[in-house]
Amino acid sequence: MTDSILKCTTRHIRIFTARCENNDLVQDSEHLTLDLDPDNEFIWEELVIGKVHKRFSELVDSYSGKDLSDYNLRKIGSDLEGTIRQLLQAGELKYNPDCRVLNYSMGLPRTKDLL
Questions:
Q1: What's CA 31's distance to the chain center, in Å?
Q2: Whole-model pTM?
Q3: At 9, phi and psi to the nearest 5?
Q4: Rounded-to-integer distance, Cα 70 and Cα 49, Å
Q5: 63-82 tens-digit pLDDT
Q6: What does the pLDDT read at residue 15?
Q7: Residues forming a β-bridge with 18
Q8: SS (H, E, C) the chain
Q9: Residue of 36, 39, 17 lying closest to 28 (CA atoms)
Q10: CA atoms of 53 and 47, how far apart (whole Å)
Q11: Cα–Cα distance between 76 and 60 in angstroms, integer?
């Protein structure tokens, strides 16, 4: 294992091989930290956050016993991006109209008018 923090950064997901202590990341190869939607592009309800965390746990468990590599972290991050997209398309997640930049990165909102 490496002495530096491995990370995966996607548009809405950041995963680090670190733990958070006093708002700082401390390298820990036995721990993964998930930073969900750091730009606050979406409005998150606890139930939806729970679904993303559950999927994250499932993905991490599926890599149990395998090398923790940049590639595997990117695969987990990409899968979580897909989960976010599914939640958005199902109407369980909504864009945050107060977001700094509202760019509809996961596609236009689905409304009855647009369907």
A1: 16
A2: 0.85
A3: -130, 120
A4: 24
A5: 888 888 889 999 999 999 99
A6: 94
A7: 27
A8: CCCCCCEEECCCEEEECEEEECCEEEECCCCCEEEECCCCCEECCHHHHHHHHHHHHHHHHHCCCCCCCHHHHHHHHHHHHHHHHHHHHCCCCEECCCCCCCCCCCCCCCCCCCC
A9: 17
A10: 10
A11: 7
Residue type, 106: M
- For residues 108 and 115, what is the distance between their CA atoms, to the nearest angstrom? 11
* 81's tokens: 């991006």
State both tokens at 92. 């369980």
- In terms of Cα–Cα distance, which of 98, 87, 111 is closest to 12? 87
Virtual torsion, Cα 18, 24, 11, 41, nearest 10 deg: 130
Number of residues assigned to the chain: 115
Q: How far is it, in rounded angstroms, from Cα 78 to Cα 64?
A: 18
Owner of token pair 């930049």: 101
- The token pair at 91 is 């109407």
Q: What is the rounded CA–CA span in Å between residue 6 and residue 73?
A: 8
